[in-house]
Specification:
By secondary structure, the chain is mostly beta strands. It is built from one helix and 58 strands.
């Protein structure tokens, strides 16, 4: 053996270990990306606590969940799934929680946001339209809380004015006058993200005319810094954000229609970007979205390729570009959609699976459009798309649970006629045919762009679009859900209760599970043997609860039936709580007997004192022991056939096991003083 080589080998091992440890210590958390839907997708206001499942890509083990901007610890953080506890207090009243995930340092950052409505399920929806003055040539909206006040705000790209407008929300569906910021030429699309990882939302705009993007860093108070511009290829018409190279810095991707490419700009973490990295697509890409379609932990891109530089348009398609994890996309797969495909969105019909793709086709038949739903079959392969008809000149689609039934829905903007086509999901990747209706979901003019959020925080998702003809921001809020009553129980059985002795109290919770305020006219109880008190006000806000306290005070040895009647403004009024109970004059000193262990061949006896609480005598009808083990038990008593008022007698039960093992039986006593009394018996022979 050559002992001179030992130190060298040890040094090599130490070096390798040191390099490996250094590599692990320097590992950088990516910016997480979340996909819709959550599980559950919505919650009933006033409901119980539950565990919320959040799905996505690049989630770190040190993640935190943001519930309306407030951080809380997760129950678990996996690379694609986060579990977080939601308390009853979190969902006590209607509203919409905005859900994000933060990966901690090194690297890390804040994910995209997902809406979580808290309200009541509906089968009929009605829209209410309102407007707010906007800048010249307003073109596309984006939604976020720019001043961290818990109220959703809107930002728009203004194509004619070469600016961005910021509308701070008042929390009631109205907005403050807009503040404007200069950007590049012909801004056509806007999105949000945190490009400098300071926890404040920033804006990114695709400037079609100046071939660049503009980033406006948010100050967290609703104001923004001057635009930072970055070259983005030829004529970008849309923008999406994700961390494509896993460095904890948010990147962007834009389509370049005339070049048949997409450009990826890798972020530097300060609002600036590197030079564009291009990847080819099918003909004339006009819109992009991001997701991890094949489940490999690397963000992919889908582009809507309209095949339409000038009308008439040919068959459109989608190009799915598989990410390599470094900002490049070496693998591309094209899938045919329909005529002039112009917009794409992503969501998952199967909650725990990879994202599906929804493509919007503006004009398919007679001027009306359609959507093509591409179901992800796994590993990024897609089924033949299912087509759903929409309206004229369909141009955008947004995703959410619009009727709070825990199923994913779609809303399609039809620019001609300014209406929305609402496709209500069946929970299995199909839409429609479920009897859910929507009315008055129409904007007032020729609108472009569509975004979704709960602008009045009533637990119902609303819509916003841009009207470049009248230069207005247009808002469609959902009409408030009517008041609705839910009761924690609709029947109470007090069992057998001693006459003129008030039973323990049973509490029933009344919840207004609707949106509108509930007016409570009266709460009555009958007959008088049932007692009721409550802390319910005359008006009860949506999502709030009050308590009814019920008791039983029998006056005779008979059975009683009654009810509590609640009269209110809900469509189900009056609500009824049925009541039952029985009175008895017979009081027993024990309600069950346990003889424990008794040697086979020996006996054990236990007494029960029976007292007649009335002033009148009661008659005895039967003393009976029954059940599977009845042969091992017997009884004697000194009660006779009648027991005088206020008198007592003794019942003696004996357990005499004839073999080993546990035996059970029931001792039943029937008298004229009330219902039959059943006393459980148990004993073990040994």
């Amino acid at each position: 053996m050559n002992f001179m080589t030992l130190p060298v080998r040890r040094s090599i091992c130490v070096c390798i270990f040191t390099l490996t440890l250094a590599s692990l210590l320097s590992a950088t958390n990516a910016v997480p990306w979340l996909r819709e839907p959550l599980s559950p997708m919505s919650a009933t206001a006033g409901g119980p606590a539950f565990t919320l499942s959040i799905y996505g890509t690049n989630i770190a083990t040190n993640c935190k969940v943001l519930w309306n901007g407030v951080k809380r610890n997760a129950m678990s953080c996996g690379t694609t799934n986060v579990l977080v506890s939601v308390t009853a207090a979190d969902i006590a009243v209607p509203g919409t929680a905005v859900i994000q995930v933060e990966n901690d340092t090194p690297g890390g950052g804040y994910s995209n946001a997902i809406n979580f409505p808290i309200g009541t399920s509906k089968t009929a929806l009605t829209g209410v339209n309102s407007t707010a003055p906007a800048a010249n040539g307003v073109a596309w909206p984006a939604v976020g809380d720019f001043n961290n006040d818990g109220k959703l705000d809107v930002a728009t790209a203004n194509a004619s004015a070469n600016s961005v407008s910021v509308f701070l929300g008042n929390g009631d569906g109205t907005f403050q006058p807009h503040a404007d910021y200069n950007v590049g030429t012909t801004p056509s699309y806007i999105a949000t993200g945190d490009f400098n990882n300071d926890g404040n939302l920033d804006l990114v705009v695709a400037n079609k005319g100046s071939n660049n993007i503009s980033v406006l860093l948010g100050n967290g108070d609703g104001t923004f810094q001057a635009a930072i511009n970055a070259s983005a290829g030829a004529g970008p018409t849309a923008v999406a954000t994700a961390d494509f190279n896993h460095d904890g810095k948010l990147d962007v991707v834009v389509p370049n229609p005339s070049a048949n490419t997409v450009s990826v700009l890798l972020g530097n973490g300060d609002g600036t970007f590197g030079s564009p990295l291009t990847s080819s697509t099918a003909a004339y890409p006009v819109h992009v979205a991001v997701a991890d379609f094949d489940g490999d932990g690397k963000i992919d891109v889908v582009a809507a390729a309209s095949n339409c530089a000038t009308p008439p348009c040919g068959m459109g398609s989608i190009s799915v570009l598989r990410g390599k994890g470094d900002g490049t996309f070496p693998t591309r797969h094209d899938f045919q959609a329909d005529i002039g495909t112009s917009f794409v969105a992503v969501a998952s019909s199967v909650i725990s699976a990879e994202s599906d793709i929804i493509a919007v086709n503006p004009s398919v038949s007679g001027g009306n459009g359609s959507i093509s739903y591409f179901l992800n079959k796994g590993r990024g392969t897609f089924a033949t798309p299912v087509s759903y008809p929409t309206g004229a000149s369909s141009s955008a689609v947004v995703i959410g649970d619009f009727n709070n039934d825990n199923k994913l829905d779609l809303a399609v903007l039809n620019s001609q006629g300014a209406g929305l086509t609402l496709e209500f999901g069946n929970g299995n990747g199909t839409f429609g045919g479920n009897g859910i209706t929507a009315s008055s979901f129409t904007f007032s003019g020729n609108t472009t762009g569509l975004a979704v959020g709960d602008f009045n925080n009533d637990g119902q998702l609303d819509f916003v679009s841009a009207n470049g003809s009248s230069n207005d921001l247009e808002i469609l809020t959902q009409q408030q859900a009517p008041a609705a009553v839910s009761l924690s129980q609709t029947s109470v059985n007090f069992g057998v209760q001693l006459v003129e002795v008030v039973s323990p109290t049973t509490k029933v919770t009344l919840t207004n599970s609707g949106g509108a305020t509930l007016s409570i006219s009266s709460i009555t109880v009958s007959p008088t043997q049932f007692l009721e008190s409550n802390d319910c006000p005359s008006t009860l806000a949506g999502g709030h609860s009050c308590t009814l306290s019920l008791a039983f005070d029998p006056t005779g040895a008979i059975g009683y039936g009654g009810s509590v009647i609640i009269t209110d403004s809900a469509t189900t009024s009056p609500q009824t709580i049925s009541l039952n109970g029985a009175g008895t004059f017979t009081q027993y000193s024990a309600t069950s007997l346990n003889f424990g262990n008794v040697t086979v061949g020996a006996t054990s006896s236990l007494p029960i004192t029976l007292t007649n609480l009335s002033d009148n005598p009661i008659n005895f009808f039967t003393f009976n022991i029954h059940g599977t083990g009845h042969a091992q038990f017997s009884q004697t008593n000194n009660c006779g056939t009648q027991l005088a008022g206020r008198a007592s007698c003794t019942l003696t039960v004996t357990f005499a096991p004839t073999f080993k093992g546990t035996r059970n039986a029931t001792f039943s006593v029937a008298t004229s003083g009330g219902p039959r009394t059943d006393i459980p018996l148990t004993g073990t022979g040994q």
